[in-house]
Amino acid sequence: MDLLQTLILGLVEGFTEFLPISSTGHLIVVSHWLGLTQTETNKAFEVIIQLAAILAVVANYRDKFTPAHLQLWIKLAIAFVPIGVVGLLFHHQIKALFSVEVVAVMFILGGIVFLLVERLHDSSRAPVHDVEAVSYRQAVWIGIAQVFALIPGTSRAGATIIGALLVGLDRKASAEFSFLLALPVMAAASGFDLVKHYQEFSGDQAGMLLVGFVTAFVVAFLTMRLFIRFLQRFTFNAFGVYRIAFGLLLLLLF
Q1: pLDDT in tens, 163-195
Q2: pTM for this one?
Q3: CB of 104 within 8 A of CB of 251?
Q4: 74 beta partners
Q5: Strand ranges inside 53-163, DSSP E
Q6: How far apart (Å, rounded) are the C-alpha atoms in residues 200 and 214?
Q7: How far apart are CA 29 and CA 244, in angstroms?
Q8: Where are the domains of the chain?
Q9: By C-alpha distance, which of 186, 219, 240 is closest to 24?
Q10: Mean pLDDT, the chain, as a whole number?
């Protein structure tokens, strides 16, 4: 992996991780476009840039990491349980689903779902406008919705945001709950992969890993902030249209 490839993958991870357009799907497609195969070294690199995205959440929401917000973290832990259990039990079957075709189909289906939900959703009338006000029951349902993200191309952010919208959160609260819920999910997934691929972090790759890490962190940090500003003025319809268009393009090209 050269410097340009490292920068591109770091940029893609940072930009797509917290948007409802599937970072995994984009990484699969971009890696294919760059001619990168899924070697152990490349898998290790993906772990590193995902860890960078996790730290971007911490940097953006550092005020939430105090005892005063314990109830919020209990709810996030509850929302994590469904995907944690299903992911652990069906890890190998989930890995077998990774292909451009599956990603394309899920992009299209996810886009249709977003357009349908936006047609029915009135964010101004949503009862929950702050992540602190999410109930335990709502947290459970958002966690169940997140399980669909195990299918490549679905998007973890997309699944949790849809789940949150359906149980009464407004757009901003849905996005922020999705950001925070990424912490336990991505930490568990990255930690699991880190144990599997730690031997790939050799000294001669340290420079490339650092470049990818910094790129993913900075881009993810800025993307989260811009995304929240975007949602204060616009709906998720643009993401629904993008998902459908991108999915169709994938089917045509691959």
Answers
A1: 999 999 999 999 999 999 999 887 776 666 666
A2: 0.89
A3: yes
A4: none
A5: none
A6: 19
A7: 15
A8: 3-253
A9: 186
A10: 88
